[in-house]
Amino acid sequence: METTSRKQVLLKAIYERLEQVYEDTLEDVLELLNISDREDAEDIADAVAELEAAKVNGTISWENYQKELQKSKLCVIK
CA–CA separation, 19 vs 14, rounded Å? Predict the structure, then answer.
């Protein structure tokens, strides 16, 4: 319940400020929101692709990953 009222307060404050800005500023705000939506969609698509790749190719344990990482660091240092 507290989250909802906090959200309402924030939305009211944003709306009041938006009422005072120029039209091109509103267009900029809308574009930023659209960019955020596209980035979220891309992140979700990437996550789904990675899950599918893990199903097909399998995964390695965290311990094996750390060992491989250490080996690669040693190769770079030499």
Answer: 9
User: Cβ distance 29 to 18 under 8 Å?
Assistant: yes
Q: How far is CA 38 from the centre of its chain?
A: 10
Q: Kindly give the residue spans of alpha helices, DSSP state H, lying in 1-78.
A: 2-18, 23-57, 62-77
Residuewise pLDDT in 10s, the chain (78 residues): 577 899 999 999 999 999 999 999 999 999 998 998 999 999 999 999 999 998 998 888 899 989 988 888 777 655
Residue 52, classed as helix, strand or coil, is helix
Separation of alpha carbons 58 and 53, rounded Å: 7
- This prediction has a pTM of 0.49
Number of residues that this document lists for the chain: 78
Residue with tokens 């660091």: 73
